[in-house]
Fold:
Amino acid sequence: MEDDSIDNLMDDGPLKKGNQPVRRCIVTGESKAQKEMIRFVLGPDMVVVPDLKALLPGRGMWVSADAKNLEIAQRRNLFAKAAKSRAKTPDDLTELVERLLARRCADWLSQARRAGQAVAGFEKVKSELAAGRGAVVLAASDGAQDGRKKIEAVKRTLPVLSVLSSEDLGAAFAREYVVHALIQSGGLATGFLADARRLAGFRQSGPVEEKG
Structure:
């Protein structure tokens, strides 16, 4: 996208495509569903701040949820151009967004576990799938390949996410580590899946599968 096409990419009000809020990326100019993007605002000190919940005051600047586009926005000073103002971008902004998204995913999973809507361990996952109670299947990003093949064989049509490590998954279940987990259908699964799809853009696991 040419620099002079940045104008009017701030969030003056939600655009809609069907029932989905749509925003334009300040890097590519592409319009996408808001849930596929990251909102940023300028703090009082003019530092660019990620706003993952899209709730912070101020006019937002939107970037597609992947490391490449965020790095381009930093390198080309696109936040300042979009805001038409001085803007300071932290050197570790990409890493910060990844950490915040990973924390949100872990929080969703921890809430689901406390609500009795998540299980850990291959046999429990398999049992939940057989009962038709699964919404999201999780495989640790650092798990062995044979473990991934085991879960792929029983996942049915559900997405399998590998955006969290065995340590991350374990922390959500108050364990040292977890390799396989499952979240049952419901709002917590929906929230987890939305943030996991954004996190996938910052990790090397590739895009998250859509539910078939």
Remarks:
- The first strand starts at residue 15 and ends at 17.
- The helical segments are 67-75, 78-83, 93-114, 122-130, 145-154, 166-172, 187-200.
- The beta strands are 15-17, 20-24, 31-33, 37-42, 48-51, 61-64, 118-120, 134-139, 160-161, 180-184.
